[in-house]
Amino acid sequence: MTTTGLWDELGIAPCRDRKAIRRAYAARLRQLDPDRNPEAFARLRGAFERALRAAARDDAPPPAILDRGEPAQKSEKEPAEVSQEQSDKDNLPPPTPALDYDDIRDHALLTALDAALQQRDAPAAMALYYRAAATGALSLQSAAGLIERVLAVAIDDVTLGAAAFRHLIRALGLDAARSQARLDGELRRRLLARLAAEDWYDNLLVTAQNRKGAVARARAKIARLLLRRIGRFGNRGVDKTALRSWLAQYKTHAPWLEDRINPAWPRKLERRLRRREMFWLVLGVLFVGNVLIQVLVLCAASLIDGDVDLSAVALSTPFFAMFLWFFVLLVQKLIKLANPDFRGFSSIVPWRTWIARIGAIWKRSKAPETGDIG
C-alpha cells in the first residue's frame, strides 16, 4: 500500500496527530462490516497501524534551523571554554521522551480487559472489549485471541441476557452464515448451543402470548405451564404428547436456561405425567387381565363339562392371543415407567434365542430324512 493510499484508506490528510488517526479509524470502522468485507477491514487495519508507526517515527523533534535573515555569528569563546561546555553537555542525562497519552490509555484499557477476563466478569469484559475495538487499541494479532477469551467468558455467564449475548455475536461478526472467524471446535459448538437455547426460549415466550385460535391456545397453555404462569392444577387438559415434546426440548437447552426456568419444575411436570400414565396403564392391565382370566375360566369349564365347541375354540384363539399380546405390552410399558433401565422381557427371557435354537434343532432332525446336511 502506497503512502497516498494509506491516508486515502483512513479518509484524512497526512498528519502526525495520533488522536486524529485513531478518530479517523474509529469513524471508518463504524461504516464497515468486517465479516462481509474482510479484505476492506484488513486494508483499513493495516493503514491504521502503518499510520501510527509513521507518527511514532516522526515524533522526534526536527533539528534546529537557523534564521536565514540573520547571519550566523562566530563564537567568541575560547577553545578551553568550548571544550568545557561540550563536556558538560555530554554529562547531561538523555532527554525524556514525551509521554503518549493514547498509548497509556490503550495499555490501561487492555490491562483492565485482561483483569475482567481473569475474573470472568462478562459484562465488564464485553464493555471493555467494545471500547478497545472502537479506539483501535486492539491489534490484528491480539484481536483473535481476545475474541475467544471474551466468548468463553460470555457463554458461561447464564445471567447474561439474550439481547446482550446476541449483540456480542454481531459485534464479533459471528452471526453471519458465511462467517470466516476461526474458533476452537468445542467453543463453536457451545456457541451454537447457547444461541439455540436463546432462540428456543424466545419462541417459548412468543408462544405463551399467542392465543388466537384453538391450536395456538393449546400451545400457549403448554408454554405458560413451562414458564410456571399456571397454577398447581394447570396441566389439566394439556396435550400430554406435546408437553413431553417440549420437556424433551428443554432438556437439550437446560444448562443455559437455569436462571429463567427452574430445573426442578420440569422434573416435577415429568413426575406428574409419569404418575398419570402409570395410573391409566394399571387400569388397562387390570381390564385386559380380567378378560384373559374370564376366557381361561370359560375354556376350563367347557373342558370339565366335556362340551367343547371346536368352532368356538377356533374363533376365540386369535382374540385370546391378541389380548395376551396387549397384556404383555401394557405390563412391559408399566415396568419401564417404574424402572427406566428396564429393556424389555427379552433381556430377562431371551425368547428369540430359544426360538432360533429350536429351529436349528428342527433342521438337524430333518437332515437325515431329506439328505440335507443342514
Structure notes:
With 374 residues, the protein is mainly α. It contains 14 helices and no strands. The longest helix has 42 residues, at 264-305. Residues 60-75, 95-99 and 370-374 have low confidence and may be disordered. Among the domains are: 101-183, no CATH class; 202-261, no CATH class; 274-342; 347-374. It has helices spanning 3-10, 18-30, 38-57, 79-91, 101-118, 122-135, 140-156, 162-171, 185-209, 214-226, 240-253, 264-305, 310-338, 351-370.
Short description:
The chain is built from 14 helices and no strands.
Q: How many E strands?
A: 0
Number of helices: 14
Please report the distance between the alpha carbons of the first and last residues. Answer: 84 Å
What radius of gyration results from the CA coordinates?
A: 41 Å
The rough form would be described as elongated
Biggest sheet overview: none
Low-confidence stretches: 60-75, 95-99, 370-374
Average pLDDT confidence is 76
Could you name the key traits of this structure?
374 residues, mainly alpha, 0% strand
Topology:
Elements: H1 3-10, H2 18-30, H3 38-57, H4 79-91, H5 101-118, H6 122-135, H7 140-156, H8 162-171, H9 185-209, H10 214-226, H11 240-253, H12 264-305, H13 310-338, H14 351-370
Helix pairs in contact: 1-3, 2-3, 5-6, 6-7, 7-9, 9-10, 10-11, 12-13
